[in-house]
Amino acid sequence: MSQAEAVAPKFKITLSRDVIDVAYRLLAVALICIVLSLVSDAFLTTNNLLNVLRQASLVFFMASGLTLVILTGKIDLSIGATVGLSACVAATIIKSTGSPWIGGLAAICIGALVGLGNGLMVTKLRIPSFIATYGMLWVAQGATYYYMSGQSVYGFPPGFRALGSGYLLGIPIPIYLMVVFMLLGNFFTKRTTYGQQIYAIGANSVAGRLSGIPVNSRLNLVFILSGAMAGLASLIYLARLNSAEGDIGETLTLPTIAAVVIGGTSLFGGVGSLFGTFIGGLILTLILNGMNLLSLNANWQPLVTGLIVLLAVWLDMKTRSKTDSN
Amino acid sequence: MKKAILLISILSVAGFTAGPVLADGETVAVFTKNQTNPFFESIRVGATKAAASVGVKVIQYVPIKPDSIPEQLSQVEDAIVKKPNALLFTPVDYKALVPAIEKVTAAGIPVTGLTDKLAGGQIVSFIGAEDYRLGLETAQSLLKAMGGKGNVVALEGVKGAISNTDRMKGFTDALKEFPNVKLVATQPANYQRLQALQVMENIMQTHAQIDGVFAANDAMATGVVEAMSAANRKAFIVGINGSQEAIDLIKGGKMHATGSSDPFMQGCLGMLTTVRALRKMPVKKELMVTPVIIDSVNYKQYDVPVATRSCPKIDDVATN
Fold it and tell me: How far is CA A154 from CA A91, A144, A245, B294, in A?
């Protein structure tokens, strides 16, 4: 009885702090949305908003696992290459066996294995994660190129394709998946011991170890999760694009890291959230959406993207320092 | 164990373990940009087939990291040491590789240019295709299919890449011949499939009526096909490269056409020209492969594995 009373108010406080945090995070998004709805009639329509969310979901899947890694103060540069490798292997398996389940399982396992490799290099061999995962990037990419030898694999069964291009009650299926994983991830990071330990390692790994956190096994875990999420993302990619080729992962890594950082997760670890990462991915997606809706000249697009990203991060830092001082 | 085998294979692909130069028969080192684009695979097949037909040995140099300048630079150094009789060379960057090629010619090894023209240096001959004509003729095929009217969307490749600039120039010039076609949007998707899908999804939000889409390569065109069919919309869609995937989509009625600069033929003619020069037979300073527009009418002749196609004879090349 008295225990329950003691827990209840504490729960309330953390919840309201989360709510404030969310509200501030949404500020940059809201600002971009207001501007876009003023300049384009097509922006504020159900169709377009669902379209934006579906595009953001792919970024979220890749970025969510990466967020855990970055929360521990490490980095995973092999994300894109892992997506490419998982996608290509899964694609050939789905084509040859006709079973999306085996292919899907393979994609997630390969991702997890790559992640385990990253984790072991960091925890056992003591290689800094930047270098370990940079090396892994080339290994995974090289393996993919060798495996595909310049060919592409395409044409998957409709049941599998629904994972990426299907609808349920008028809403694209990847959006449901994103919500499910966001809730799961949020629970994992905020409400479990594992999650708290991940934050603690990022905040101060030495103190973490001294206080009895199994730092190495937690680090292995976040790298495995990062790889597995990349594997899952590769399935969404396949289902959406209906095709895989060796180079698909090449351009994915940097925007994924950007999504995490724009979402307010510190590269030094210990600070950040999965919801923030969702917002980060959403901002990047909205920028592309807006530029396409307005038919912005191709020459201006990189410049505009850069400026809006900087503005969003600045806004986030500005508001965050306010909540911190409160 | 498996990993070790894989690593060795990767290294050999990159040419690090390529065999020693043998004294009998000429050896030609073939440089292409990457392992990932089937275009260069077709070039390699064409060059290899042509070489086999005239008793020439081939060393393939391909960067592991696609289009990597430092890797190709070191591969050129490697070739200078191995001293093949000639180089058949596609630069990963038309400016950055000029000094390296100057070194090759200084070492007494003749160079034939392939696909992308170098900004300088001495070459025996250049074999390639004009991206301008490819863009022009692919666009003409699209605009004709649209009946010379309606709304068209263009997806650009990598800004600043010459191939993109030339293809888009071809598209723009073709558009001038069809004054009743309205260009409603030109947006970049960097030759990438996923970007093309997303950009097309976005463009469809503002334009209710899209009758044709010009994509500057096939990867983007297939992204457009996915975006439009997911939204239950139809349009004439064209791409460039003549990839097998595009040919299959043309067969299935989902794409209108793909322009091909016939990489297999480029590989054949590149190798044969190189060998002709080595054997003191006359060669043209520049040989342009005629673009091929593959559509629902003629796709059958290109819907065969590249390896089953055959190269022209070495004696027929100069007049080709």
Answer: 7, 16, 9, 19
